[in-house]
Amino acid sequence: MTFRIERIINAAAFSTLIAEKWDLWAAETPGATAMQRWAWVGANVDRVPRGMFIGLVLFDTHDEPFAAVALKRSGPGVLVPVGDGVSDYLDIAVSPTAPPTTIDHLVDAISELAPAVHFRQCHPHGHLAMAFRGALEPGEVCPILALAATADEQQLAIPKRLRQNLNYAERALRKQASSVTYRIADQHSLAGDIDACIRLHQDRWRRRWMPGLFAGNAQKEWFTDISKRLLDAGLLRLHTLSVDDKVIAAIYCMASSGTTIYYLGGFDQEYHKWSPGMLTTRAAMMHAISIDKSHTFDFLRGNEPYKYRWGAIDRPNLRLLLGRGLFGNALCGIERQRFAIELSLKNRMHSLHANKQAPSRPESVSDKIDA
């Protein structure tokens, strides 16, 4: 097949050219989550500092694009996908009608851009993972839960002790308050719900003497921008639980192609004994089944014990580290060491702050989740 590759260093020009097609390709890619959709990717592309962006687009003989990747510089000699650090799944975008050799051509072109290119968060069913299975390395685990066909069946699928505790907590909470309200953010409530989500999330991390995701104004501006885009695209599911008009829990989810992903959350410590975070998570699951027809609830990266209380099973992310020459291979070696240290620190943090260790977990997911 004859094709050409265009390198684009202007993020705005790249977005104008590829935004619509990228979103269409991602929507038609089996297993792709909301993090592969343009609402998420585009918001991150727009925030890449000037001079740091590199985009590649493959065109066919009719000058139609059929594959693309968005990258940014990350230190001397290293490129990473746009969204690295804030995204749990990263990938290239490929048209469903592209020829089988497309990904090989695109990765060859990517490899020529820098001594090292690090795809740290490859979805196990994404384009890169499927094309380069033998070259990929295991990454962080993403606990995922296979959802039942109906909300009633899912209620029964919740482990008995947890189900009883949640039912008791909700009854007790309703006795303490004039009103208890579950809500999903819309255009009218979004700004207030975002503020509540940030406040509750940051409070959780401050109690651990850690900065959290929203340590500065730039992160808050990014979160507000990306939330508006996700809502406009019909992908955002920001669930809140309010008691007497006070938001006491927020669960930030996104839904696309049969998968609901749980990005972050937080709850008011004053209401800890009523498990507001777990109650809101249950509401998010029921909405995922009843409204979004999701078959999978994905808790994303991290092996926090609360995820396994629902019956979630580990599915590891994958890493593709492309090194060229001695310098590039050395950079990949440094990245492997960095990842091992980061993972060790995270596991220690979870162990210190959990009431008990995470239960033992199977090594692979079921066929139902992978479907």
What do you see in this structure?
- The protein has 371 residues and is α+β, with helices and mostly antiparallel strands.
- The protein has 2 domains: 4-138 and 318-363, Aminopeptidase; 148-294, Aminopeptidase, CATH 3.40.630.
- It is 40% helix and 25% strand.
- It is built from 12 helices and 13 strands.
- It has helices spanning 11-27, 38-45, 102-111, 127-131, 151-157, 160-176, 190-206, 217-232, 276-290, 305-308, 325-353, 367-370; strands at residues 4-8, 53-59, 65-73, 78-81, 93-94, 116-122, 137-146, 180-184, 236-243, 246-256, 259-267, 296-298, 313-323.
- Strands 1, 2, 3, 4, 5, 6, 7, 8, 9, 10, 11, 12 and 13 form a 13-stranded mixed beta sheet that branches.
- A hairpin with a 2-residue loop joins strand 9 (236-243) and strand 10.
- The chain is globular, with a radius of gyration of 21 Å.
- Mean pLDDT is 91; it is low at 355-371.
Keywords:
Aminopeptidase, 25% strand
Secondary structure blueprint with pairings:
Blueprint: E1 4-8, H1 11-27, H2 38-45, E2 53-59, E3 65-73, E4 78-81, E5 93-94, H3 102-111, E6 116-122, H4 127-131, E7 137-146, H5 151-157, H6 160-176, E8 180-184, H7 190-206, H8 217-232, E9 236-243, E10 246-256, E11 259-267, H9 276-290, E12 296-298, H10 305-308, E13 313-323, H11 325-353, H12 367-370
Parallel strand pairs: 4-6, 11-12
Antiparallel strand pairs: 1-2, 2-3, 3-4, 3-5, 6-13, 7-12, 7-13, 8-9, 9-10, 10-11
Helix pairs in contact: 1-2, 2-8, 7-8
Oligomeric state of the chains in view:
single chain
Topology as a string of helices (H) and strands (E): EHHEEEEHEHEHHEHHEEEHEHEHH
CATH superfamily of the largest domain: Gcn5-related N-acetyltransferase (GNAT)
Rg on CA atoms, Å:
21 Å
